Amino acid sequence: MKPLTETDVRASFVNLTKGATKRLNLPADLAEQPWDDLDYLGWQDPKAPQNHYLVTEHDGRLCGVALRASRETRGPRKTMCALCASVGDVALLVASRAGRSGQDGNSVGTYICADLDCSLKARNKRKLDSPVIHETLSAEQKVDRLLGNLDAFVARVLRPA
Questions:
Q1: Would residue 75 be called left, alpha or beta, if left means φ above 0 and alpha means ψ between -120 and 50 degrees?
Q2: CA 49, CA 10: separation in Å to the nearest integer?
Q3: Phi-psi region for residue 137, left (φ > 0), alpha (ψ -120 to 50) or beta?
Q4: Three-state DSSP class for residue 160
């Protein structure tokens, strides 16, 4: 992924108001991200831990998606991430749909690694939370799977209900 600036990130969100975009807390270490190893920028808001954000390229443009953790009382669960297929601390994250549909309350959700480190896990650069079934896929194939799953999720956010 190419390095992103604060301006890039704030301008990319498809399911936030302009005011909410201005108020969101960006990662403190934005400039120091391992950009060469990222397929998307993902972070959890340290001041509002139920809020998560991801920014990726979709159809040739930057696309930011605001996510909210579901109101599970047990916290993250040991289950499979829908993006990278790793098993570990995964949370049900819900995104309002883009545009009028989202303003009407329509949303989509999926299970994603609570730390949003799928890119590093797919490249075997982040230790997995739990022992996993041995996969025969190469790191490149895992990254391709991640990109396909991420693209499909973002397309669901952008699609009218």
A1: left
A2: 19
A3: beta
A4: coil
Q: Please report, for residues 7, 25, 70, 77, the alpha-carbon distance to residue 28 in angstroms, rounded to integers and kept in the order given.
A: 14, 8, 25, 27
How do the domains of the chain map onto residue ranges? 6-158
The whole-angstrom separation of Cα 19 and Cα 89 is: 31
Whether pTM > 0.85 for this model: the answer is yes
> Residue 51: helix, strand or coil by DSSP?
strand
Q: What integer is the mean pLDDT of 81-88?
A: 90
Do β-strands 41-44 and 77-80 pair in parallel, antiparallel, or remain unpaired? unpaired
pLDDT 10s digits, 92-142: 999 999 988 888 888 999 999 999 999 999 998 877 666 666 778 898 999
Task: Report angle CA 3, 83, 137 to the nearest 5 degrees.
Answer: 95
What one-character-per-residue DSSP string does 72-100 give?
-SS-SEEEE-TTT--EEEEEEEEEEPSHH
Instruction: Please enumerate in sequence order all residues whose Cβ is within 8 A of that of 112, keeping only pairs 6 or more positions apart, or say none.
Output: 52, 67, 81, 82, 83, 90, 91, 93, 118
Helix (H, G, I), strand (E, B) or coil at 33: coil
- Structure tokens, 34: 């391992």
